[in-house]
Description:
Number of strands: 2
Helix content: 55-70%
Strand order of the largest sheet: 1-2
Oligomer: single chain
Amino acid sequence: ALIPICARSKTAKIHSRYNVLLSGDCAGQVKATSGGGIFFGAQCGRLAAQNFQNPLRYESEWRKKYGLDLAMHSNLRRGFDALTSDGIDLWMHSMKLLKIDKLLMQIGEMDEYSKMFNSKLFTSWARAFSG
Length: 131
């Protein structure tokens, strides 16, 4: 089946007196870069269980915690999709030249990209680049 690469605009609502909350693949809570969804599906499933009586709170909570990371995966996927195979080769070569590959191996966070963007990232990159 097709894997969604962006989150649904609405993942929770009240329908005929029933609270309906979606998580995981059916909510589009999937890493667009790889199609993986276990981490986000499990985390959002937990939030859905905690907020089953308040669908609007669930919607707000998962977007606050994981919306930025899912958007980063989607933007990276769109960027890759826009490149030719030569463009991908050039991008990969640039990553290696700037030693970003070493940085990602040290502090890489494959699910929550937003955790990598802090002062630790730049300190680690400077060390990897200089040595």
